[in-house]
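Researcher: Next sequence.
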Amino acid sequence: MSDVDIVVPAYVGGQPQFPVADTVFTNIFITATARAGTPSTPSPASPSGSTSCRSRGRGPARGSGTFINRESAEWSSRHPAPQHRRSHIATPKTFAVLPRVTVVPELMTAALGRRPTMGEFVGNRAVVLGGGMAGLLTARVLSESYEDVVIVDRDTLSGAEGPRRGVPHGRHAHGLLARGQQILEELFPGLERELVGHGVPSGDLAGDIRWYFEGRPFAPARSGLLSVSATRPELEAHLRARVLRIPNVTLWERWSVDRLDFTHHQVTGVWVTSTDGNQKLLSADLVVDATGRGSRTPAWLEEHGYERPEEEKVKVDLQYTTRIFRLDTDPYGTDLSINPLATPTNPRGAFFPKLSDGTSLLSLTGMIGDYPPTDLPGFLEFAKTVGAPEIYDSVKNAEPVDDAATFRFPASTRRRYERLRRFPAGLLVLGDGVCSFNPVYGQGMTVAAMEAHALRQHIRDVGTPQALRFYHDISSIVDVPWDISAGADLGFPGVAGRRSLKTRIGNVYMPRLQAAAHDDPRLTEAFFRVAGLIDPPQTLTKPGVVMRVLRNKKVNTVSTRREGAATPASAYRRDQAAPPSSPGDRAA
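Model: Next structure:
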């Protein structure tokens, strides 16, 4: 890092009073003058409590602004501020010099992407509600098409590296599927290298994670699909740092969302309130609701005379119970994680990754009301039953680092925005607010990334976003993971819901494919390419794949197991020899 003096411009009547001029510097001007006691005009783009630049010797500053860097200064010098700005952008009447501002040049060019010229912007300001994964990805995409992007979140996000109130499941195991990893690397080049450089384990999704089905591990395969074993707070912190380095992105933290501001059939902003009770109208050309499962958009639509979207629910009555342990043995070998899958014969599962600090996180899952206990003896007894014996063996005498945390998930929910006939202009919904998936399938972050990616293309195609067209665009994205997760959940007898012929056939075929994958790496690879949302599900029913499944004699035991009690685990470690099989048991 290096320190440089930066002169901040002022605007008088929309005219820059210094040759280096841009809105991001207007934001930082407010911060600097507020600290120095210089009179200033408050700006809607820089509320107290939003993320600030770092100044020498202070750490994160309290006030308004954003991270700045050498690239943003160069960009501003090449692109002077517009002659006429819209009325909701503040115009300070003096200028100031920031004493010494820390510059973060590393990875800046890759992180920023290509900034449009002034003529390419489709709007002045976009506001993103929610600073989680969906919100950060949306802000990254919108920064290419809007002059100013503001992220609003009720939590304190500056320096947040652990679980927070706005992400109640943040302490539990999370998965970023292969397609999500690809999109993140496209939007944030070098992210994988950055994470690995911070000690986050990474490897092959199908070859470096020990997946269990019915007490036996899948045959490992080299799929080329990357898995980065970061916790949710770790991944979010790295993305947030990248996003806040973009010159035209600002974070309003510790602000809660009250209501939308409507003008006729157009959303023109959002009313927000700070933790000290200060209420503001944040005007915007586009508001994106990325607040997740608790999205209030359906209620807001109803309040303004619109229909609520239809909802589809699959009730799974799931609970996670999670603890972190310091192990005195190594159950992993070269693997990143040990993950036994819940099945209809045993609705208990687990995710057991090793973490970047050398500890191990164990998330136990129970469906249909079979909740993992929070007391340590009960937790360990539950761990015995998940179908991967090395998990219990490694934690029974290990040191618990924390108390148990729980997260309950009653139902997967899909809101059918694409079926609405009317929708207000200037408003979009993304992420879990559109579809909230059973978290054991690890689809949520990846689908949010795919939707943000689709929004980027949508704006490139049509300019100003058209809500109903956008919802039709993403409905096809949501269809596949919804069919995978909701269809699999309907294979559990205790899960209520209509079972179509497609669902019933799938829930007969998939256990047989998974059983065959115990001995066939090609089937393991094919399965995880579909589960990772790289290939469509139809690839698993191609004649060559079906023949590999049918040739495997072990598939004949699946129906017997599903009718009886849960099969005891008879697993072997990855570094031990697999149980012998005859040549006829392996597909050619």
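Model: The chain has a mean pLDDT of 78. The chain has 16 helices and 25 strands.
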